[in-house]
Amino acid sequence: MTTLLALDTATEACSVALLHEGRVYSRYEVIPRLHAQRVLPMVQEVLAEAGIVLGAVEAIAFGRGPGAFTGVRIAVGVVQGLAFALGRPVLPISNLAVMAQRAHREQGVSQVATAIDARMDELYWGCYRLEDGEMRLAGVEAVLPPEQVALPRAAEGEWFGAGTGWAFAARIPVAVSGMDAGLLPHAEDLLTLATFAWARGEAVDAEQAQPVYLRDNVATPKKG
């Protein structure tokens, strides 16, 4: 059975989850600015609870962004350090997808419009649909002013709004059946998505553990 570790520090929440022998162990705390101090102790706590050592982990998943610049950097730094030391691959997972997966787990919804407050009067935005238990991206992830976000083309049925960006609901031209503007990424849901990615062979080497901010896509030349 697969043993995967997942961690996320991209938003106000700091969380860690471990899959071992079919069981999930997790820690979750909303602790702005304390992620760097807590994330490794949380890793040790879930390992101890499962009764295994770090070397038993086969791959490490992490929230690759979008999110707070410093928070995403913390996750990348910690994951690269652990992965290089262990000689293990990594699984970068979108934080917007993690939030959609959490909304599905907690609310039972199958179509989720996720939004994170990106500051500077913009939102990180992504729309997800449930397919075989996995929230998958419909369209593209983007950073936009609230007035410019939209559902994917040919969108039908009810959509649920999730994430801190929905604090701007009055400015978002998207009708939702419900919303949770306090929803943050949780490593348990990151772990769920990582399990699908692992099964598809999407793990990459540790040096490819890179943050995704969305905002810097315009300024970064595409590699040929």
Automatic annotation (TrEMBL):
Top-level taxon: Bacteria
Source species taxonomy: Bacteria, Pseudomonadati, Pseudomonadota, Gammaproteobacteria, Pseudomonadales
Assigned keywords, A-Z: Cytoplasm, tRNA processing
SUPFAM superfamilies: Actin-like ATPase domain (SSF53067)
Family from the record: Belongs to the KAE1 / TsaD family. TsaB subfamily.
GO cellular component: cytosol
NCBIfam families, sorted: T6A_YeaZ
GO biological process, one term: tRNA threonylcarbamoyladenosine modification
Protein name (record): tRNA threonylcarbamoyladenosine biosynthesis protein TsaB
Keyword Mitochondrion recorded: no
UniProt-annotated location(s): Cytoplasm
Gcp-like domain residues: 31-170
UniProt KW Oxidoreductase keyword: no
